[in-house]
Each structure stands twice: as C-alpha cells, then as structure tokens.
Amino acid sequence: MLTKNNEKLYNFLVPILSIVLGFIFGAILMLFFGYNPILAYQAMFNGVLANPFFFGEAMRQATVLTFTGLGFAIAFKAGFFNIGVAGQVLVGWVTSIWVALAFPDLPRILLLTLSLTAALLVGAVWAGIAGVLRAYFGTNEVIVTIMLNYIALYLTNYLIRNVISTGGNTTERVGPNASLRVDWLTQLTQGSRLNAGLFIAIIVVALYWVFMTQTTAGFEVRAVGLNRFASTYAGMSAPRNIILSMFLSGALAGLGGAIHGLGTFGNIFTQSGLPGVGFNGIAVALLGLGNPVGIFFSAILFGVLDVGSGFLPNRAGVPDEMAEIVIAAIIFFVGANYLIRFLFEKVKTKKTATEGGE
Amino acid sequence: MSETNKVIEMKGITKKFGNFKANDNIHLDLKKGEIHALLGENGAGKSTLMNILSGLLEPTEGEIWVNGEKVSISSPDVANQLGIGMVHQHFMLVDKFTVTENIILGKEKHKFGFMDQATSQKDVKELSDQYGLRVDPKARISDISVGMQQRAEILKTLYRGADILIFDEPTGVLTPQEIEELMEIMNALVKEGKSIILITHKLDEIKKVADRCTVIRRGKSIDTVDVATTSQQELADMMVGRSVSFKVDKKPADPKEPVLEIKNLTVKEARGYDAVKAIDLDVKAGEILGIAGVDGNGQSELIQAITGLTKVDSGSIKLDGKDITNKKPRKITETGLGHIPEDRQRYGLVLQMKLEENMSLQTYYQKPFSNHGFLNHKEIKEHAKQLIEEFDVRTSSEENTASSLSGGNQQKAIIAREIYRNPALLIAAQPTRGLDVGAIEYIHKRLIEQRDHGKGVLLMSYELDEVMNVSDRIAVMYDGNIIAIVNADETNEKELGLLMAGVPLEKAHEQVTETEGKERETVANEK
Known about the structure:
The structure holds two protein chains of two kinds.
Chain A: H1 3-32, H2 37-49, H3 52-77, H4 85-102, H5 108-137, H6 141-164, H7 183-188, H8 197-214, H9 216-226, H10 228-233, H11 238-265, H12 276-287, H13 292-308, H14 312-316, H15 320-335, H16 337-355
Helix pairs in contact in A: 1-15, 1-16, 2-13, 3-8, 3-11, 3-12, 3-13, 4-5, 4-6, 4-11, 4-12, 5-6, 5-11, 8-9, 9-11, 12-13, 12-15
Chain B: E1 6-17, E2 20-31, E3 35-40, H1 46-53, E4 61-66, E5 69-71, H2 76-81, E6 84-87, H3 99-104, E7 110-111, E8 114-115, H4 117-130, H5 146-159, E9 164-168, H6 176-191, E10 195-200, H7 203-209, E11 212-217, E12 220-226, H8 232-240, E13 258-268, E14 274-284, E15 288-292, H9 299-307, E16 314-319, E17 322-323, H10 329-336, E18 337-340, H11 344-348, H12 355-359, E19 370-371, E20 374-375, H13 377-390, H14 407-420, E21 425-429, H15 437-452, E22 456-460, H16 464-470, E23 473-478, E24 481-487, H17 493-500, H18 505-526
Parallel strand pairs in B: 3-10, 3-11, 6-9, 9-10, 15-22, 15-23, 18-21, 21-22
Antiparallel strand pairs in B: 1-2, 1-4, 4-5, 7-8, 11-12, 13-14, 13-16, 16-17, 19-20, 23-24
C-alpha cells in the first residue's frame, strides 16, 4: 500500500507548509499596514545568513531551543503537555550560575560537569513534581506546571537578590573555567555568543533518538503515551513512565537553562517574566513533529527568526511591534500545524472524491 | 410504475477511499413496509453504505432515490428531513438525562424560552404507546435497562419523523428475551407503515424477521434474496464466498487439575459498590469455561481482577497454583496468563504503533527482543513476521500501524500474540465481537486447540450461541454473583436466558421443561 510512503511525505510536507503559510500571513499583515514584506524578509534572512556574527547568534539561540524543544517533545510523546519548560529552564539557569559561582576554583572540566549536572537535576526534579502529582493524584500537569512556572520565576528572583548576589538585580559573572565559550567558535562567528552548548545539543539530539527508538525504556514511554490502558495491561507501569518522561523533560529543559547561563550570558539577572525560549520550545517541538532531527532544524529556523526580526526596523522600516507580530503569526501557523494537517486531509478527500468521478 | 412502493433505491453506489473501493457498484432497494436485512462480513462495506444513506459520507458514484425522487443526501440533517433515521449500535444517549430529555434533544419544545417538559413527556408517552414501546418518559437513562435504552433510541428516531429506520447491529447487547421483544417491536413498526433496514451478521435473526436480504461481500452487492426461500447455510456461504461450517467441531473435554482457582472474590467497581460479590470459580486445565451474562453483571470486573487491572477487595486468586491476588499485571502475565481483552482497541493494542511493536508489547523487555535495555529490532520483526504468517493476519507489512488493520485482523494479531506465549490460562473476553463468520470460525478453532493442548480457557461472551457452542461448562453471572454453573451439553438457550435474567437455576429448569411440555402438547393437538 501507498500509505506508509504517503505518511512520510505528509510528515515532511505539513511543517513546510506551516512555515510557508506563516510567512504568507506575515506578508499579508505587513502589506495591510503598508510595509514591504519582500524587503522585510530579505532584510531578515540576509541580515542573519550573510553575517557570521548574526548567524552565530541565531545558532546560539537554536542551541537552547533544541533543548527546550526536545524537553517538551519527550513529555508530549508520553502524553503530557509540559507547559512548564520555561520554569524548568529558569531553575536550571540559576542553578548553573549558583554552582559556578560557589566553586570558582575547580578545574574547568569538573566545574562545567558539576554545574550542568546540577542544573539538569534541578530541572528534572522541578518537572518531576508535576509528574509525581499527575501519576499518583491525577492532577492536571498543565495547571501544575503553570503554577510551578511562577514559583520558579519568583524563587529565582529572590535567590538572585538575596542569596547569590548581595542585593543587586544581577549576579557576578562566572569565571572563565565555568564558561562554555570556546575561542575558535567565537572567532569563527566574529565574536558571537555561540558556544560549546551547540555540540552538547547535537549529542543530546542523537541520544534522544537512541533513547526513543532503540531502548526498552523509550518503547515504554511511547507505548504509555499512545495508549496507557493497553500499556498497563501489557505490564508497563503508567505512573513510572509518566514520572520518567516528566523527569527527562525537565532534565533537558534544565540543561538548556544551564547552557543559556554558562554559554549565552555568563550570569543571571532578575527576570520580569518567564524566558521565551521555554514557550518557543513548544512551537519548535510541534514543528519538528517530535522527531529529534526535525526539532534541531526547526530550532535553527526559530533562531534565525528570532535574531532576524531585529533587522526589520532598521533595514525594512517595519517597526519593532510589527516585527514581533509577524514572528508571532509564523509561530502561530507553526503551532497550528494540526489545523494544516486537517486542511490537508480535507483537500485530499475532496481530491479523491473527484478523481473517483472519472 | 411499480417503483412507487420502493421507499429507497440505491443505484450503483461506489465509494472510494484513495484507491480502495469500500463500496463498488452496490444496489439496494427498500420496499415500503418491509424489513430488509443487510448482511455482510466485517469490512464488507455495510457501514459505508449506511453512512452514505444517513448523510455522513458522500458517494463517489451512484444515485439515491427516496420515495421515487432522486436526492442528494449531503448531511445527516438532509437524511432526517427525508425521514431516514438510524438506531445506532452504541446508543447516542446522554446518561444523566431522562428518556424524554434525550428524545427531544435538539428539538426541545419551549414556552417563552423555558423548556416545556410536560408537553414533551406527553408527546413521548403517546408515541411510545402508539408503537408499543414500553418506556418510562421520566426515567433517567442510567437507571433503565439496556433494552429500554434501545427503545428510547428507537423513539428518538420516530420523534424526529423517521419513516425509514436503519438498525445497526441492534441485538449485540440484548438478552435473548430482549431480542424477542425487539423483533416484535420491529414487526409492529412495519405494521404502522415504517420500513426497516437491519444490519446484522446474525443469520437466525434475519430468518426470524426479515423479508428480503441483500448480501454484500468485499464492497460488491452479491444478491438480494427472499429470506423465506433461502436457508441460513446459503446466506452464510453467500456472505463469506465459500462454504462455512456452523458446527464447532470439538472432542469432549478432558479436564485436569484447576489452573485458575478463585475463592470468595469480591471486587469493587469504580464508584465503590461491589461489582463481583464473593464468588468461587475454578477453571481446569483442558476445559473451556464460559461466562454467560448480560453486559454489566460483573463479568468485566471479574476479568480485570484476574488480570491485575483492578484491585481485589477480598478473596484470593490462584493461577497455576501460585497466588496472584493483587499482583501487578506483568507478574500475572509472567505467571502464565494470556488475555484477549474485551475492548481490543483500548486494551489490546497500541493502535498508532507498528504491528511488529504490538506483537512484542508484553515481551519487549525479555531476550531476545532486547538486551540490556536496548531493543533488538531484528528479532522483534522476525517474531512479528512469524506470527503474521502462522495466524494468517492479513496486512501488507509488519511495519504498518495496528490501526491500519481491519477489526478481524486486529483481533487475530492479539490472539496470535497471546496464544504464542502458550499461557496456562487464556482469558478470551468477547473474542469474536463484531467479527464475521469466517473469523469467528477461526477464533473458535484456536480456542479449542488451546484447550486440547491441555490449557485452561476462560471465555466471556455476551453471545449466547458462542458460549453454548464453544464452552464445556458455563457459569452464568447475574448481579455480581455466579448464579449457576451448568454443563454446556445439558442446557439450552431458554434456560440460560432465564438464568441471565436472574431466575434461579431450579426455577429456570422448571419453566423450561414446562413450556417444552406445552409445546409438545400443542404440536400433538394440531396433529
């Protein structure tokens, strides 16, 4: 039958179409308000792709988005909507900085391992709370993780003001032996903040694939996510897999936060809201359709959009707000790829119906 | 024109899904005042055809004529206006609403924006009296029997002005007595000038009520025959396309030591009342124990307790001599249990996963399917291929998702997986529900084979025929109790029907012998 190949083609076409529709919609919006969309998109892509520094920045953003995207995806595979990725990023971020500042004299490899591991664990436990509550008390993980997001936000701000720094809104910068920056990458991208996190991200993409497709644990997570009744009947423990998947989800988000901290910023400062990389991770994962390589590429696209939108005001005369709206529209269409899938299906049945009339 | 007495004519209906023709040039006509059976195997295209008639699907080709006029049924609303109503297999009723509320749903009568309950109840009462459908208009759906729920469902279509009623497998959930009542209702409806299409695989029902029968096979209409002059065997052969045997061939059982010992078992239902009430039950190696009963008398809870999906409240369960009370499902499976679950799509398979993955759903963590936590895809594939071949699961590839298989083949896949593990006890819950004669024949053969290999089989079914033909002993469940255990060759449908309705064994026995005596008398008198 054709269905298997069709399905593959489909899985590839849907995200592409989402992106195209997003751009078209953004273009219509710009036209409507009297801006030149071609100029705008040109500014955006030329700005990023033709300049090593901005390309480096886009890749830097893509690195963190890869983690949040994978983090969201693993919970999603198990049937959960981990909207708390942002909070988990934040606790990972603050943990990594805290550890790095607490042991400034450790050798680099040791300190980095320690900071990253600590961030990973704290992120995992943070998401794990929602997993445990869900598994044993049936609480809705969406509500719990949203609440945990706020706790993470204000706890982090409290720690920054009162524990890690002395009353300021910013912590000290971590020492060079806690930084993920590598000279050759910085030079290659003409001073961008792109860092070794990129390589960790690529390794994690591979590990994610191995876990999901090659291990019995991944098999269980997938089975429980798709049908917890059949899985329970087959002897798998639904609670165990719920907790495991949330734990891993938080671990990835926490690691992403640490890479934001040790790679991008080198410090942490009080936040007025939750980091956008957390929420964009959801869109990244949905666009990548849960496939780790797909997620990596969709993270790059989002990185480019994020950095590229900065060019719209100066080079195309599109104001900041408009640029944000266009990006949001694209994200909307990407996130709404279910809608596109639905439309696709409609068109397809229509087509077969008319074909049948021959 | 003689056409005028035809209320429905479907001419040359073809429906394509991609390259697949679900309906291929089907002809069906329904005369006014007749009961017309639509007979076909699973996946033969009955549902597609009826979905076209009720406006859920549009045909790729073909014409539909209603009352001599060509129509285009583009939506269920249009079907409604044309007087076509469907009595669904799974009732479309709101549990918490009363019968009246359900019937008027979407067509509520109101005064100044307030519901006019009194008038509606009167209307429903009148309508139910007119057709002899005994229902209590004020009763809540959740409080009434399945039979009455079905009557409410029938009333709903009548209230909406249906003249043409489609009954979709209406007897699956009914007791033999309720089936009798339904047949009477159908006859009454026809007398009142309604016309009925009856979708079913049950040949005896067709023989009982239908006037004509259209047989479809693999999307094509094979023939339309007069039921009176066609035998059940002929109908079955037409449906399957080869000669089918109805008799379940089996040797007498050779029961040995018990493999399942249930003592004083009580299981609470989700809402907290006792669903299984202190029952004792044994299944011996080398026998098939059937559990008969109307849906909802504790059978499902009993099976869930044995398989470890529900907590046992008190009592004990031993499998193969080992205590499995409140053990985890995996432990119980490993002790030697195979389970063909009642709801195969929910409990039996992970539909979105590949067939090969489903074939190792319980054994993926064992060698050779995995090693130190890493899956061995090659072994999993080989295993699946072997099962597919040995159990004749029809699929183009083991990499297809389980959802791409037809119902019968999904069931075959589960049976293959469960039997292949060679469990000491095989629980088969409703193993042939919704399957066609060919598949049923096959599944029964496999169950008996399992018995003949000296394994225990626990067969739970709401189909009396199945329980009677396949089992060696039959336990009847009523209201959480096992009210009788009888030998299959010493009982009959009437007795079981009474037992299922809660009549104690002695009384049931009496009644049956009494009526049989009377029948003999009348036959004698007529002579």
